[in-house]
Write a structure and sequence with these properties.
By secondary structure, the chain is α+β, with helices and mostly antiparallel strands. It is 67% helix and 6% strand. It has helices at 2-33, 37-67, 78-91, 124-129, 132-147, 150-177, 180-185, 188-228, 231-242, 280-288; strands at residues 70-71, 97-101, 108-112, 118-123. The longest helix is centred in the last third of the chain and has 41 residues, at 188-228.
Length: 291
């Protein structure tokens, strides 16, 4: 388990470094195609900082609101509350805010900028379907996202993906709406590079996002097994979750990566080819290796 955690952490930080470098490179080349690469680099850096700060402080509230999650007190659901409390004590973490999502779907997610400002949300369907050890495994998985600061990393990744899209849109707008003289004054090499990046950068950004998100899921599984000392609990829960085809009605593509499994159910779509979640079968196999 310690080996799995260390391996995933190294790979995630490497991918994050590649992603940030990629965003800055996109800004530089798109700026260079307009005649000033350093201006584009500066614009990308400033835009990244502003959007990241906004999401850093408000991203969790938006995620909970969009999922329809309702915050509860201990007396509202002592069973779930005490389970989260016990796991928090075991992990040495502050007690996160507990939310319930009024849906029969089997899902859960964690959000927040750090352990002191974290929230865990679970669906009614998950609470009613899973046994004690299985629900404990799922809650430990989400609490591991808090402990490993995945909630912060995935917020940053989401912002970086958005920035790449904004930079690409800005370049294509300038390219097609600028005057003929402006286009003739553009450096041909950088203009071609800018066009290529405008086309490919959103796809590349999404692929990097998927790689980081999937690694964080494996890491949270390993951390949850370490926390509960019972990998089979989470593995059994994942089997039940994978057997359900009930989608989460309030799910959307911008928050899908937060959930423990694909919130759109088993319905096939083009977007399912780019799922932020690794196949549950692979996750179960990794957990079985820890038994």
């Amino acid at each position: 388990m310690y080996s799995q955690i260390a391996s995933n952490q190294r790979k995630t930080y490497l991918l994050m470094g590649i992603f940030i470098s990629f965003v800055l490179a996109v800004g530089y080349f798109l700026g260079a195609s307009q005649g000033n690469g350093y201006l584009g680099l500066g614009f990308a850096a400033i835009l990244s900082a502003v959007m990241t700060l906004g999401s850093y402080y408000q991203g969790d509230k938006m995620a909970l609101w969009s999922a329809g999650a309702v915050r509860i007190k201990k007396e509202d659901n002592p069973y779930v509350w005490r389970m989260v409390e016990n796991l928090s004590i075991t992990a040495g973490l502050p007690m996160p805010a507990v939310h319930i999502i009024p849906s029969n779907a089997l899902n859960a997610f964690a959000t927040g900028r750090d352990p002191q400002h974290a929230s865990i949300a679970v669906t009614i369907g998950l609470i009613n379907t899973l046994e004690n050890e299985e629900l404990e495994g799922v809650l430990a998985h989400e609490l591991s996202h808090v402990q490993n600061y995945d909630i912060r990393i995935m917020t940053i990744v989401l912002v970086l993906v958005g920035i790449v899209g904004i930079l690409s849109d800005f370049f294509t707008h300038r390219l097609f709406w600028s005057s003929r003289d402006d286009r003739e004054n553009m450096n041909p090499f950088f203009m071609i590079a800018g066009i290529i990046l405008a086309i490919l950068s959103p796809i590349i950004a999404m692929l990097i996002q998927l790689a980081i998100s999937r690694k964080r899921e494996f890491l949270a599984d390993a951390s949850a097994a370490l926390l509960t000392r019972y990998p089979d609990g989470l593995a059994s829960a994942l089997r039940k979750i994978s057997g359900s085809d009930i989608p989460l009605e309030t799910a959307n593509s911008s928050t899908a990566h937060l959930f423990i499994s694909n919130p759109f159910g088993k319905k096939f779509s083009i977007s399912s080819l780019f799922s932020t979640h690794p196949p549950i079968e692979e996750r179960i196999k990794e957990l079985e290796k820890m038994l």
